[in-house]
Amino acid sequence: MWPLYAAGFTTAFDAHGIAANPGSEGAVTSVLVLGGFLAPYDGAEALLKPLFGSLADRVGARPFLLGGLIAFAVASALYTAVDSTAYLWAARLGQGAAASAFSPSASVLVARLNPSSHGRAFGSYGFYKSIGYTLGPLPGGVLMCASSS
Q1: Distances 38 to 41, 52, 88, 98, 123 between C-alpha atoms, Å
Q2: pLDDT at site 23
Q3: Which residues make Cβ contacts (< 8 Å) with residue 120, sequence separation at least 6?
Q4: Between the CA of residue 80 and those of 23, 61, 67, 85, what are the distances in Å?
Q5: Which residue ranges run through the membrane (predicted)?
Q6: Whether the predicted model's global pTM rises above the 0.70 cut
Q7: I want to staple 105 with a disulfide (CB 3.0 to 4.6 A). Which of 46, 64, 82, 135 is the partner?
Q8: Domains plus CATH for the chain?
């Protein structure tokens, strides 16, 4: 389970750490634009999780777990490397799409590895993801402040 815990923590930490970094200085000109940076991630997840979950049932969870993690890393790297608002939005959309492939597959594997204790297993997995969600924004904000100084 530790690799799944680590993957859940890392994706949550990264997604929220990046959410605290709205790109180049001056890219966020209003709260509406900030919402525009945050929404593509969640929108892609909401729309694509059922699709990737169905595909994981047909093909297997492991390829979608690994592919989602790799795509997530690529989208995250893209976000840190670009300066255009359109590319920043595209990178967040890519992160959300990758998370939608990773997340259902991780859940399948958590269930398979713990056939007699689903509640405890999902509670533990959710704990590590929640820690990532909680800890990600602060270092992301610190990095943003340090890079703009």
Answers
A1: 6, 21, 10, 15, 26
A2: 62
A3: 114
A4: 8, 29, 20, 12
A5: 64-82
A6: yes
A7: 64
A8: 2-148 (1.20.1250.20)
Compute mean pLDDT per 10 residues along the chain, 149 residues long, and list them. Answer: 88 81 66 80 93 94 94 89 82 93 92 92 93 86 68
Block residue for tokens 């297993």 = 121
Closest to 56 in 3D by CA, of 11, 93, 10, 103? 103
Task: At 117, list the tokens.
Answer: 């204790």
**Long-range contacts, 128-132 (Cβ 8 Å, 24+):** 128/5, 128/6, 128/8, 128/9, 129/8, 129/9, 129/11, 129/12, 130/12, 131/9, 131/12, 132/8, 132/9, 132/10, 132/11, 132/12, 132/13, 132/14, 132/16
Residues 6+ apart with CB under 8 A from 3: none
d(CA 131, CA 87): 28
118 alpha carbon, distance to own chain's centre: 23
